[in-house]
User: What shape does this take?
Amino acid sequence: ESSVLLCLKKRFHRNLIYTYIGQILISVNPFKDLNIYSEDVATEYQQGTLSKNAPHIFAIAEMAHMLSQSSGQEQCVVISGHSGSGKTEAAKAIVQYLTMLYQGSDSHRIRQPCNVLPILESFGNARTILNDNSSRFGKLLNVHLRHGIVVGTSISQYLLEKSRVVFQAHGERNYHVFYELLAGLPVEKKEEMYLQEAESYFYLNQGRACDIPGKEDSRDFLVLVQALEGIGLSDDQLSTTWAVLAAILQLGNICFTSYEKESFEHAAIASDTEIQIVASLLCVSAELLQSAVTHRVTVTSYDRIFTPLSVEGAIDARDSIAKALYYWLFEWLLLRINEWLAPWESDSAVGIVDIHGFEDLGVNSLEQLCINFANEHLQWFFRQTVIAQEEEEYSQEQLAWIPISKMYSKSCLDFLTVKPHGILCILDDQTSLTQATDHTFLQKCHYHHGNSPWYTKPRLPLPEFTVQHYAGPVTYQVHKFLSKNRDQLQPEVLDIFSQSRLKVVSHIFQRAKAAYSQQRELGKRGKGLKPQASTLVSKFQQSLQDLTAKLRGSHTFFIRCITPNTRKLSSIFDVEYVSCQLRHSGILEAIHIQREGYPVRLPFQSFLTRYGLLAGSRPSSLEQREGCAAVLAHVLGNPSDLYQIGVTKVFLKEKARQLLESRWLQRQSWAVVTLQRKFRRFLRRRRLRVLQEKATLIQAHFRGYQARKRYRRLKKTLVQFRTMILISRPLVQRRKRCQVT
Assistant: This one.
């Protein structure tokens, strides 16, 4: 773990935010613009492999595109991470790469998905404690291709957080669209829809954070309107959309009072002003709507029985209507977006999955259990995919596959979902019982799982239980588990809104009514005459199964997004916070799987470039495999269980890599010392030559000086001798004459 953290930290401080761990791409949010997504950068990765260029999300996009054309199998890129880690930006980068480099000559006819992103962000994003623009739904974006050219896109949503419509924690907001509507809608239109300031609505002001610093809701509303008009929404449809949102806000302001009748508590609406406004905005009957909020209808073979609700039950009924209005409006908008983006025809696709990350908050409820269950399921799929990819790589290199010693099972998933006593199964069973409570659900969990290694009871009698997830233990508070799981509108509510005089509202709820009827039919076929309950958990599991089935039929790439710190600063790398995310994302587990075999894999050329000289001589390019074998045999011995040689790569244990590095460093040291010795000898010889030349020059000058001095002395002597001869000659002649005389 420490080596992974050190690697990520060093690269982060050098503005290298992408790192490969096996075939998994780690992306660390830099919280600043690095200018690494330009068209020039994208061109560098075109027609390249993962090992050819530096780690980048464009490399993953290129590989997905390349394999979609060569293998004929659909490709999927799964992006996950904590809120604020950059998942949405990563998805945008992949779409940007594909639409930038693979557009046809008639690209002006292709409608770009970036044009609809303002709609998805306004209706699907909200402020949370960790992120001011957190995506609160999972999405699958399919980029459709024909002969390698982008021809269109389609979007599917998973697990929309409907509970945010009616509840937000302190410091959080509802979905952006509500605040943008109130800030940007013209005054006369706001008066027509009875709209006021955000602080006056219960559904918007629970978090006490109606404004986001740096976000201009009025400007974003204009962008939203432009995007909605761009996908073909008419003025009437836009007005209906604003009316539905206004009605949801009015529903949240409905207050209830209680009165006793026949020793039972009954709920009554304190003021019918809000219910009248809702009925007026949605063009439905106010009396029927009021009855749906305060009564539960039971249909028998002979009659319809109206049972008054308590205040708590009425609040739940009101919130269910609000959540259903928002959910079906979101589904309708997504349908219109897909109709606008739909390709004419395609032969392949690249899917991009953006899903919630593992959550462990101060207070964890049913939403966190569902999210963590989804991550548990995806983590199991991730493990199996990593193992399958490992086995495939060994097979391609014609090496013996080493089975993973630690067999990863679905025990925690079985503990949550196996019938009849899985946690989620118990929750669904208790939800279908009218007399069941959160307490009875908790007691059944304690009874069936008290001795399970995946389950921990509280030491004190508290309404909570702890699940041992793959990323660590998480404690869940069971308060309102059952009421949240009853995610079902009464049939009379569907009838009320399907009879609306607004075409959009009527169409939306007729589709909802058809889906509900189909579900009842399926339930009757499966369980005799008792229809299957439609709960939040059951819908969640169905969505997750659909997503997993799609991933299972595709070749999958994984991108794990990491937040370097909680303060969103560009220069801080919080080691403990990142370490927690690595555990939650399963990266450390993937590393363990790889370490079970041969984690270091180098192509022959790369291996010989670094270690080739360890064999004594560099082999020729035609003998790469034999050269690698010679190096390994010389350093590690032959045979050895520390390495295997494949068709194109050398597979090494970590110990083998360390031995090679140690020998390479020794060779480096020897080479450096040799170079230093040679260079010192060269310097000494050059200095000696200079000294010799100078000595010779000095000697030459000295010999010249000596010769000239001797010459002058000899010349002087000769002159003196001649002078003496000239002087002595007359004397000799006189002496001779004297003798003669």
Summary: The longest strand covers residues 149-158. Confidence is low (pLDDT under 50) at residues 527-533.
